[in-house]
Amino acid sequence: MPTVSMFYGILVLIFFKDNEQHHTPHIHVRYQGKKAAVSIEDGSVLAGDFPQRQLRMVQVWIDIHKDELLANWELAVNGDELFRIPPLQ
Question: Which three-class secondary structure string do you get for the chain?
C-alpha cells in the first residue's frame, strides 16, 4: 500500500489491486488513528470515519489532483509502481 502523498499529518494511500471491494477508484486516508476510503470521483466517504476538517482538505486535494489520482489508480489496479503526488499546500 504505497503512500502517494502526505500533508498536514494526513497519509494518502492507494492499495495495489484494490478494485473489488468498493468497485470505484478510491484512495485510503489516515489521520491520528482514523481511517477512511474516499472516492476519487466525488470525494465521498466510501467506508470508515474521518474528521470533517481533514476530510475537507482531502476533498480539495482530490479536486486539484484528480487526473493524477486516476492515473495512479490505473497503475495500482495493474500492480504497477505508483508515483508521488504533491501535497496540499
Answer: CCEEEEECCEEEECCCCCCCCCCCCEEEEEECCEEEEEECCCCCEEEEECCHHHHHHHHHHHHHHHHHHHHHHHHHHCCCCCCCCCCCC
pTM of the prediction? 0.91
- The distance of Cα 72 from the centroid of its chain, to the nearest Å, equals 10
Cell of 41: 470521483
Mean pLDDT by 10 residues, the chain (89 residues): 93 82 86 97 96 98 98 91 94
Cell of 73: 489508480
CA–CA separation, 85 and 77 (whole Å): 17
Give the integer Cα–Cα distance in Å for 83 and 67.
13
Phi then psi for residue 76, to 5 deg, are: -65, -40
Residue 81, CB half-sphere, CA atoms under 13 Å: how many? 2
